[in-house]
Automatic annotation (TrEMBL):
It comes from the Bacteria. This is Lipoprotein SmpA/OmlA domain-containing protein.
Length: 130
């Protein structure tokens, strides 16, 4: 085996081992979250205390696991160097009108680094008493 092939295989092992798997969050109703697209039924806000209680475990989670838990994001931004951000509305707003226009309503955001793992879990507006 050539040394070059060794380093390529080693690099692949390192990249695939980045991040961790997350199949569920205790107390989080993933199906209810996904049913409330754009938070238009105002059901997502009820789950914020559970998300906040387990927020630290979300760091380092892979993109596919966030997709499985939270469903397709309401909005997505692609940034430089293959980084991306998912946005999930947590309160009703103008995004609930026809054509789902971008809204100033509060959003839960997941920022993914170049390796596809969560590097930040933020809210667009600070939470008040949640």
């Amino acid at each position: 085996m050539s040394i070059r092939l060794f380093f390529v295989l080693f690099g692949l092992v390192i990249l695939t081992s980045c991040g961790h798997s997350l199949t569920s969050i205790p107390g989080f109703d993933s199906a209810a979250w996904r049913r409330d697209a754009y938070a238009c039924q105002n059901q997502r806000a009820r789950q914020l205390p559970v998300i906040n209680a387990h927020r630290e475990v979300l760091y380092g989670t892979r993109t596919a696991d966030i997709d499985a838990l939270f469903g397709r994001p309401d909005e997505e931004e692609l940034n430089e160097q293959t980084e991306k951000t998912y946005f999930y509305y947590v309160e009703p707003g103008t995004q609930c009108e026809p054509r789902h226009q971008r809204s100033a309503a509060n959003k839960l955001t997941f920022h993914f680094g170049p390796t596809g793992i969560v590097t930040a879990v933020l809210y667009e507006k600070p939470l008040s008493g949640k």
